[in-house]
Design goal:
Blueprint: H1 2-5, H2 13-23, H3 28-54
């Protein structure tokens, strides 16, 4: 999808992370992934709370 919006020369974040893991061991990958994991976990948790309050969780 990204290639349809940008050019071929554009390096996306997942590609840059993969190249960083493959080429050199750098703690910046872990530092970058921690907030992403926390944000996704918080969003999933908020969605679960909303579903439980609406009663849709029991379905």
């Amino acid at each position: 999808m990204t290639l349809l919006v940008t050019s071929v020369e554009t390096i996306t974040l997942p590609c840059r992370m993969w190249m960083g893991l493959r080429d050199n061991v750098d703690p910046s990958i872990a530092a970058l992934s921690e907030p992403l994991i926390l944000v996704v976990t918080a969003l999933v948790g908020l969605r679960a709370v909303r579903l439980m309050r609406k009663g849709a969780w029991a379905r």
